């Protein structure tokens, strides 16, 4: 077996990159319940790239820290495959947490998927090495897999148990360290034998070029970390900030509209809602307090709120007739106008619904 050593400065850098990537990915997923479905998809994709890219970068920085007796190279195909595996499994874990109810078994499944992404990326990336041949021991697979799944589940439970800043920071420490722990646990049970000289099986990347790729990736992760950190601190109240105002108690009677913010479900009196817009399988409600995300579909909202004065004016819109400030009849359809709403000033009215709306408005 080959004898190798480590550059401990690069090991420290690999752990730091893992922590920055973990924070960036988890911070990007905070507050997704209050945004539209399209924005949610984009931020989940960005978070998956941050988490998966962080796993990959930590691994290869740690590999660059190893000092072998022979020159080593990395085959391009498994090197690229390893980062794609990490990103895809991180994305699947985030999809499980942000599209569907967050039950205990679902959180466990998401954590297991995230952990398997770490260990699958590690062994796929390790298989890319040329110049020496990795020699695996079954104990390494068992220990690395068990640690990856266990720490992945723990990170997800901490991050999504409550969507507070402290949870994000705690999960960052757990996930960031778990990537390094799994890597070095697997390496402890992996030896390296001198490979038989021969031509590479495909395009190969030497250490210098790999270092350049890793450097660029680390730079991108660092920039994303700084941006996420600035947004995270801006969202957190400062030491001299006044405590948040208590929400006004709901009226004793009348329907209420559920809406979600930071993983918490609140209830808004339907009388305060001016309009509701379909957003995929969910809806966005517009009220003086701003735009909020509602878990009801547009059909369910219509069924529940029609007795409270709401009217379906379009396949994608319900309006509260008490909030309509003006109605404009166009050639074949119409427009409802609103005042005092920062995010909405008009709603289209379908031609087939114009007459019924005019009757509801007393016209």
Number of strands: 17
Structural class: alpha+beta
Number of separate helices: 9
Largest sheet: 5 strands, antiparallel
Helix fraction? 40-55%
Order of helices and strands: EHHEEHHEEHHEEHEEEEEHEEEEEH
Q: What would you report as the Rg, rounded to the nearest angstrom?
A: 27 Å
Roughly what is the average pLDDT, rounded to an integer? 85
The end-to-end distance, rounded to whole angstroms, is: 89 Å
Amount of beta strand = 15-25%
What is the global morphology?
elongated
Structure description:
Keywords: Membrane, Transmembrane, Transmembrane helix. The chain is of the alpha+beta class. The protein has two domains: 5-235, no CATH class; 256-360, Beta Barrel (OB fold (Dihydrolipoamide Acetyltransferase, E2P)). The protein has helices at residues 8-28, 37-64, 76-98, 104-126, 138-161, 165-188, 207-235, 298-305, 354-360; strands at residues 5-6, 66-67, 73-75, 129-130, 132-136, 190-194, 204-206, 256-261, 264-269, 275-279, 282-287, 290-294, 310-314, 317-320, 326-329, 334-337, 346-349. A five-stranded antiparallel sheet has the order 12-11-10-14-13, with helices on both faces. Strands 4-3-7 form a three-stranded antiparallel sheet. Strands 15-16-17 form a three-stranded antiparallel sheet. A hairpin with an 8-residue loop joins strand 16 (334-337) and strand 17. The longest helix is centred in the middle third of the chain and has 29 residues, at 207-235. It is elongated and about 90 Å long. The model has no long low-confidence stretch (mean pLDDT 85).
């Amino acid at each position: 077996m080959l004898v190798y050593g480590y550059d401990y400065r690069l090991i420290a850098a690999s752990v730091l990159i893992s922590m920055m990537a973990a924070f960036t990915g988890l911070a990007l997923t905070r507050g997704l319940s209050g945004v539209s479905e399209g924005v949610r998809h984009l931020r989940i994709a960005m978070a998956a790239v941050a988490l998966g890219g962080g796993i990959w970068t930590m691994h290869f920085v740690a590999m660059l820290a190893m000092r072998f007796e022979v020159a080593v190279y990395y085959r391009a195909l498994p090197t690229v495959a390893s980062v794609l595996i990490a990103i895809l499994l991180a994305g699947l874990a985030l999809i499980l947490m942000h599209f569907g109810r967050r039950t205990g078994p679902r959180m466990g499944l998401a954590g297991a998927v995230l952990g398997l992404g770490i260990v699958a990326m590690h062994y796929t990336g390790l298989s890319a090495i040329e110049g020496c041949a990795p020699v695996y021991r079954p104990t390494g697979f068992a220990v690395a897999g068990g640690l990856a799944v266990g720490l992945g589940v723990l990170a997800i439970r901490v991050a999504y148990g409550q969507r507070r800043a402290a949870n994000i920071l705690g999960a960052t420490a757990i996930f960031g360290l778990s990537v390094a722990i799994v890597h070095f646990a697997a390496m402890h049970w992996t030896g390296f034998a001198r490979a038989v000289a021969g031509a590479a099986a495909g395009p190969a990347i030497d250490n210098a070029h790999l270092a350049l790729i890793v450097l660029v990736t680390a730079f991108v992760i660092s920039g994303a970390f700084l941006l996420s950190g600035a947004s995270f601190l801006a969202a957190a109240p400062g030491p001299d900030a006044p405590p948040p105002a208590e929400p006004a108690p709901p009226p004793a009677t009348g329907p209420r509209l559920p809406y979600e913010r930071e993983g918490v479900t609140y209830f808004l009196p339907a009388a305060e809602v001016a309009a509701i817009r379909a957003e995929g399988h969910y809806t966005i409600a517009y009220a003086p307090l701003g735009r909020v995300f509602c878990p009801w579909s547009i059909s369910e909202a219509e069924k529940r709120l029609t007795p409270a004065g709401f009217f379906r004016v379009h396949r994608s819109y319900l309006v509260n007739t008490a909030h309509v400030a003006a109605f404009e009849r166009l050639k074949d359809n119409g427009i409802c106008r609103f005042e005092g709403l920062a995010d909405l000033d008009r709603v289209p009215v379908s031609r087939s619904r114009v007459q019924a709306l005019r009757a509801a408005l007393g016209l």
